[in-house]
Amino acid sequence: MKLQHGFTLIELMIALALGLIVSAAAILMFITAQKSYALQQGMANLQDNTTFGLNYITDEIRSTNLNNIKSIINDETTYGGIVFTSAANARTIPATGTVPKKVFSNLYPTLIGANTAESFLTSSGIHSSNVSCADVIDNGCESGDVSSDQLVIQYKPQYVTDDKGTTVTSDDMWFGGYDCEGNKIEFLKTEPAKRIIVQRYFLREDTDKGTEPNESLSLACDAGWYWESYKNSASADVNPTVLTDFGGQGEIIMKRVDHFRVLFGIHTEKGYEYISQETYMDLTEEPKPRILSVQLGLLGRSTQSVGSDSAFKDDQEFKILDQTVVVKTPTTNSSSKYVRQVVSQTIALRNTFGERGK
User: Is the preceding peptide bond at 287 cis, omega within 30 degrees of 0?
Assistant: First the structure.
């Protein structure tokens, strides 16, 4: 009689149990690796987006007040500096004695049109954001939703001659590089004046979006220009009246920014401090302190989800310069989580060198 060899029921159950354990371990490793990959991709995406985007903005903002004859930047600086005022909100210094009233704005006061309105100037809290104030004391913001800031600068490019490779001079042009929207800054040398470039940094809705947990906000830059004033053949003053190509949607520089904050560095009797546009414009001293630097803070978010990891909470708090904020609870797609990071940069305004003080 032939002996039959095989597994007993107990041996089979042990083998199946060991196989299930090995399979479960393999599946767990796969899921962990998948989560780790998604997280790394999200972090890399966020790092590239915020770091390179902020570096680009930093280089642009360093042009503030370039080629201006005045080295002081405040709310009176024309043809350069940070644009706080226009004809729409120009301030008047009261007359004293026989001295006439002085009306000033630092976006040239003769410019007219809807794109010179206050909504297109440097402002605190005028654009959408995806954050609310955190429940902490002295957090730099009021209760409820927090709006993002807007920064507007102007400068005169360093122009060079472009002869277009010809020997004639009638087609010679001034070339001043490119604005933040990628437009070439050039015009014929026969023009009687040169262009002043105005650039506006703000958050807006991005139409190129997928399933988002909050508003698809991105940091954009809108650029425009106006002519310098000049004297015509009759030696009469010709002042600019039109701000061209300004007030549009602009070009997106950095995708998925939940909040954008701007502060201004000033030197006062108390020392060096950073204040918001609102606080700066509320200062009663005349003239207002010169602005020496700009501080930018933003809350960036990865463009792709990192899954539903519970480590990323919807109510996470972030400190953005002087504000402590919390991300709004998503209204849709709340199961998807995203990596967020605060990025800040202090930019010294190199075109403000001069005597310290007012």
Answer: yes
Angstrom distance (rounded) from CA 123 to CA 88: 14
Structure confidence by residue, pLDDT tens digits, 235-271:
888 999 999 999 999 999 988 899 999 999 998 777 7
The three-class DSSP label of residue 186 is strand
Break the chain down into helix, strand, coil percent, rounded to 5: 20, 35, 45
Residue type, 128: S
| 19 phi/psi in degrees, rounded to 5 | -65, -40
Question: What separation in angstroms does the CA of 305 have from each of 40, 106, 260?
Answer: 11, 43, 21
Question: Hey, is 215 helix, strand or coil?
Answer: coil
Delimit the domains of the chain by residue range. 10-352
Smallest Cα–Cα separation from 180: which of 150, 232, 221?
221
Which pTM was predicted? 0.84
C-beta neighbour count of 244 within 10 angstroms: 14
Residue 93 is which amino acid? I
Q: Please enumerate in sequence order all residues whose Cβ is within 8 A of that of 246, keeping only pairs 6 or more positions apart, or say none.
A: 115, 120, 198, 200, 222, 223, 224, 225
- In the beta sheet, which residues pair with residue 267? 272
Amino acid at 8: T
For residue 268, the surrounding DSSP H or E stretch is strand 257-268
- Only one residue has tokens 């650029």, namely 223
Report the distance separating Cα 108 and Cα 83, nearest Å. Answer: 10
